[in-house]
Amino acid sequence: MTVVSSVNVNGVRAASGKGLLEWLATSGATAICLQETRARPADLPTAFTSALAGWHLTLEPAEAPGRSGVAVLSRDEPTAVRRGIGAPEFERSGRYVEVDLPGVTVASLYLPKGEAGTPRQEEKDRFLAALAQHLAEAREKAAAGGREMVVAGDFNIAPAEADIRNWKGNLAHSGFLPHERAWFAGLCDSGWTDGVRALHEGPGPYTWWSYRGRAFDNDAGWRIDHVLATAGLRPEHAGVERAAAYDRRWSDHAPVTVRFGRP
């Protein structure tokens, strides 16, 4: 059985003092993918590293301090680690890392946010193109090694109308642009399974809510955090751990967990 959780922590130092450590202590996952850690190894808070007993930490920080950063926590020690998506432009951006574990490769992804009609969106689109190629190659390598693959993280894309509360008001916004949704659909058409959507029809469950206004209280969210898996892993249970109240949130994202079995 493979259980993968994913969450954008919105800064591991801040989250460690708000509830991340308590969540880690109760996790039953075999691997946890973290995004937007915003910390180099020397910057990790002592409370966080002390809470990792029983876990192996693979951290991929961004070259720019205080930016991006991804990590994988795994119960088993990785037999191999690969960093980046093979595109020189994003080599030190702290947006992708993958580890080989028994029977499965697990990757943590933090996809750029983008902004429609700006160079930031052009950068995101270049990342999407490079990532699609990398995932196709990584899946083939995993299969050749007798492993399945899971890629989990903050994709910054809501794939369909069921994945965003106010979809009509966001048709021209990055994260819900037609070509972004087509890109995500292309992944699923090529053999990747959306672990949450395979078990939940929607609308939602949402994984991100703006801190502005009453987005969280009104559940006006986006489902942009995803756990995708290759065909040899069958989703058996999937859920989003939405905080019980606004003041109990330790990130603007909520953890997503999918339990996989074998067909």
TrEMBL record:
Signal peptide limits: none
SUPFAM superfamilies to which the protein is assigned, alphabetical: DNase I-like (SSF56219)
Cited InterPro entries: AP_endonuc_1, Endo/exonu/phosph_ase_sf, Endo/exonuclease/phosphatase, ExoIII-like
Keywords: Hydrolase, Magnesium, Metal-binding
Every Endonuclease/exonuclease/phosphatase domain range: 6-253
Cofactors: Mg(2+)
Assigned protein family: Belongs to the DNA repair enzymes AP/ExoA family.
PANTHER family linked to this entry: EXODEOXYRIBONUCLEASE III (PTHR43250:SF2)
Name assigned to this protein: Exodeoxyribonuclease III
Organism: Pseudonocardia ailaonensis
